Amino acid sequence: MTNGSRTVPTTVVVPTYNERDNLPVLAGRLLDLGVEGLRLLVVDDDSPDGTGEVADKLAAEHPDRVAVVHREVKDGLGRAYVTGMGRALADGAEVVVQMDADLSHPVEAVPRLLAPLAEGAADFVIGSRYVPGGSLDTSWPWHRRALSRWANVYVNGVLGLGVRDATAGFKAWSAKALRTVDLDSVRSNGYSFQVEMNHRALSRGLRVVEVPITFTERVEGTSKLTLGVQLESALVPWRLRFKR
Ligand SMILES: Nc1nc2c(ncn2[C@@H]2O[C@H](COP(=O)(O)OP(=O)(O)O[C@H]3O[C@H](CO)[C@@H](O)[C@H](O)[C@@H]3O)[C@@H](O)[C@H]2O)c(=O)[nH]1
């Protein structure tokens, strides 16, 4: 990303667990975007399918553009993001993008997520399925569609965030915004991580813009959505509301 004539160091953080077939496709498309200063940071949790080795190979092929953090056990999406975002900031990133490895988030939309940050119009940007122009792949299972819609109504009802896609996992953050949310004290680990990040950011006065994206159902691999993640998601908005 550039700001005037200056290249802005931009890191895309991608958590992976069993994404062997998806990761090389995602990496290739990200590196081919033509976004100046863009790097990829993979956070892998010792995936049994060998995703970590695939990531190491990508890093060896693109030493200036791809890096890998290996964690020893599967420890959840939220903590993977906290680790990856912290590392990106420590390495000098001024903008951090978060996205899934499974190609459900459209790679070509990354520049549209970066634009409001470059223009100074937002502190963080949500790739949103629920603003005009955004959409959900019709092949997403009906129960996931219903759960996603319901989660947004629920979260906004409890917390009044005022964002249309409160659980979205495709976002771009300025470094200042990530420092303001105080990553190290984030507690949520499933997709309520997204809710907690929004809540922290908005309650600290940060500005958000939602840009429309089309969310596509993954082709390879499986979702890691568990009952535990869903229960956490039901409880987290209340914990945040009463600040416990
Ligand atoms: N390192 C690591 N990565 C993980 C873990 N669990 C999941 N991931 C990675 O996190 C990404 C998202 O995981 P999925 O399991 O595919 O997510 P999902 O259920 O489809 O949920 C997506 O949509 C939700 C909104 O509907 C989002 O809230 C969520 O963040 C994600 O984008 C993938 O790249 C996956 O490999 C983990 O424990 N550790």
Automatic annotation (TrEMBL):
GO terms for cellular component: membrane. One of its GO terms (molecular function) is dolichyl-phosphate beta-D-mannosyltransferase activity. One of its GO terms (biological process) is glycolipid biosynthetic process. This is Polyprenol monophosphomannose synthase. Keywords: Glycosyltransferase, Transferase. It comes from Saccharothrix syringae (Nocardiopsis syringae). CDD domains: DPM1_like (cd06442). InterPro entries: DPM1-like, Glyco_trans_2-like, Nucleotide-diphossugar_trans. It comes from the Bacteria. Residues 11-179 form the Glycosyltransferase 2-like domain. Belongs to the glycosyltransferase 2 family.
